[in-house]
Amino acid sequence: MFDSPMQRAARATPPEIARRIRGLSDRTVAWIFVSPTILLLLAVNIFPLIWTINLSFTNFRANRPNRAIEYVGFENYQRILTDGDIWLTMQATAHFLFWTILLQVLIGFTLAWLINRKFKGNDLWTTIIVLPMMLSPAVVGNFWTFLYQPQIGFFNYIVSFFTGVDPASFQMIGDVPLAPWAIVIVDTWMWTPFVMLICLAGLRSIPGYIYEAAEIDRASRWRQFWTITLPMVLPFLMLAVLFRGIENFKMFDLVVQLTGGGPGSTTELTSINLKREAFEKWRTGYASAYAVILFVTIFGLASIYVKALNKVKER
């Protein structure tokens, strides 16, 4: 009788197994170890995506699982793209993205440039600046909620000192024009250190001999900045913008802790609006179509941006 492959493998001694492994190529061995992880990632990510796309063409409601599912075609997508409230949340998200990324890049790069200049206590100040990004968004949200309180909030007294406005009448998170800026300030405070670290890595990757050659050519500090520092740090800056753009597009927990999307819907970002549609109104099919649109938007913009980043790196 012939033995099966499993029986032969069971009787194989360790030296025999070692000889068989040595007979495999490095690429084959790598695939043997990596393939379980790849299969797990595909199962965790691809299946939910396919299921979400399938639900986006239906009128399914998660709170009515026994209800017959009807396919409605592109009706959900049409309703989303013509819904004025959806476009208002998109506008609020765009406002949040633009100002947080702009402030974080400007302040982060400035801090990195200052810390890159060696001075006494450099390491201590770097550690202090990085502390906010180590905190949980829920903790940061609660902390800044107290700072924004009209009666006891320290932030209001700072504003009052410079403007003369009564602190008790200053509603940072309860005022429609100011609430979006309250979120921008907190997110900038929390994540500017992240941008600073990326910029600092870029600054310290510039070889010193380039500046020495520029000084021999009598190039001014300003000219060195525009012709050496900024072009060589630009890929790092663009990478920081990519990371912060993706993260802020799906911002949820910090905004919920601070304003809950209010007052009204002033600070209701797309992530919060999506949660309301899916888990408060229970329009699961509609929310699935909404999620697909957001995914395609983020993926498309990120792909275009990565191509631009690669072109900058190739220069």
Summarize, please.
The protein has 315 residues and is mainly α.
Can you characterise this structure?
The chain is mainly α and 315 residues long. The protein folds into two domains: 14-55, no CATH class; 77-314, MetI-like (MetI-like fold, Orthogonal Bundle), CATH 1.10.3720.10. It is built from 14 helices and no strands. α11 packs antiparallel against α14 (284-314) and α13 packs antiparallel against α14. The longest helix is centred in the N-terminal third of the chain and has 33 residues, at 84-116. The radius of gyration is 27 Å and the shape is globular. The model has no long low-confidence stretch (mean pLDDT 86).
Descriptors for this entry?
315 residues, mainly alpha, MetI-like fold, 2 domains, 14 helices, 72% helix, globular
Number of helices: 14
The CATH architecture of the largest domain: Orthogonal Bundle
Order of helices and strands: HHHHHHHHHHHHHH
CATH fold naming of the largest domain = MetI-like fold
Helix-strand makeup class: mainly alpha
CATH superfamily descriptor of the largest domain: MetI-like
Radius of gyration: 27 Å
Q: CATH class of the largest domain, please?
A: Mainly Alpha
Fold topology:
Blueprint: H1 5-11, H2 14-22, H3 26-55, H4 75-81, H5 84-116, H6 122-130, H7 137-147, H8 154-163, H9 179-204, H10 208-216, H11 221-249, H12 253-258, H13 270-279, H14 284-314
Helix pairs in contact: 3-14, 5-9, 5-11, 9-11, 11-14, 13-14
